[in-house]
From TrEMBL:
Protein name: IKBP1 protein
One Pfam family matching this protein: SIMPL
Keyword Nucleotide-binding belongs to the record: no
Compositionally biased intervals (Low complexity): 17-28
Primary site of residence: cytoplasm
Superkingdom of origin organism: Eukaryota
PANTHER family found in the cross-reference section: INTERLEUKIN-1 RECEPTOR-ASSOCIATED KINASE 1-BINDING PROTEIN 1
GO biological process, one term: immune response
Gene3D superfamilies: Protein of unknown function (DUF541), domain 1, Protein of unknown function (DUF541), domain 2
């Protein structure tokens, strides 16, 4: 009975032997520039990083129904001003607050409804503002759970960081390979980004039956962004590793 074939080996580094030059330059060995050895190490490397969300959007809904139109408007306007003032006092810029109002006639009464969307970059301030409004306004305002997300700038920064980390890991791998053979790593000859992936985080569905029942930390975890990068690089092999570098 024939034995099963062994699984294929994964090559992560390849030492390319030197090729004998057809003719050496006349300046070689006489003070001229060094002759390239032609020896190379080919290495692949990867990295994976994550970044939590850098923004959160909170929606606040409030309304009033009165017999007089002015009374309905006034009731909502007072609460809107208090919400805006509370957010401004805690460092939220005016441009991060958006107010939408809707005024209608319901049977013999007037109904005024409003929604305030506030974008926070500081999650501690977000909690302080929401806790204050719940304490002061009570059931007259409905605050939705925060929606966490990433700005395009944050996603771009994560992709750059993971690419740089993959290149650094690849260089360290090449150094280790060269040291294993008593060689010294030279300059990079080629660095190629082969694959970059992005995906969002998620929590186990068994942790919660409803998205509305997620805790704040679970929501942040659910909105965390992940990125991975794989690169291929070719480095020059300079020659024997000197004793000083080996001791460092």
């Amino acid at each position: 009975m024939a034995l099963p074939a062994p699984p294929p080996a994964r090559v992560f580094a390849e030492l390319v032997p030197a090729q004998a030059p057809a003719s050496a330059p006349a300046s070689a060995g006489r003070g001229g520039p060094p002759v390239p050895s032609g020896r190379e190490v080919h290495v692949s490397g990867s990295a994976e990083l994550s970044a939590g969300p850098d923004r959160a959007r909170v929606s606040l809904r409030l309304g009033s129904r009165k017999d007089a139109a002015g009374a309905a408007r006034s009731s909502v306007a007072r609460r809107l001003e208090y919400i805006a003032q509370s957010a401004r006092q805690r460092g939220v810029p005016e441009e991060n607050m958006t107010v939408t109002e809707d005024f209608s006639r319901v049977e013999n009464t007037y109904q005024m409804e409003a929604e305030v969307c506030i974008i926070f970059s500081d999650f501690g301030k977000m909690q302080n503002v929401c806790n204050l409004l719940i304490e002061k306004l009570g059931t007259s305002v409905t605050i939705s759970p925060p929606h966490f997300y990433h700005t395009p700038e944050a996603i771009d920064a994560l992709c750059r960081q993971v690419c740089v980390a993959a290149v650094a890991n690849t260089r360290r791998k090449a150094q280790e390979v060269c040291r294993l053979f008593g060689q010294s790593l030279g300059k990079p000859l080629l660095i190629r980004e082969e694959e970059t992936k992005e995906w969002g985080g998620h929590i186990d569905s068994q942790l919660s039956n409803s998205p509305d029942s997620l805790t704040l930390q679970e929501r942040i975890q659910n909105a965390t962004m992940y990125a991975s990068c794989r690169v291929f690089a070719v480095f020059e092999i300079k020659g024997k590793e000197n004793r000083r570098n080996k001791l460092l």
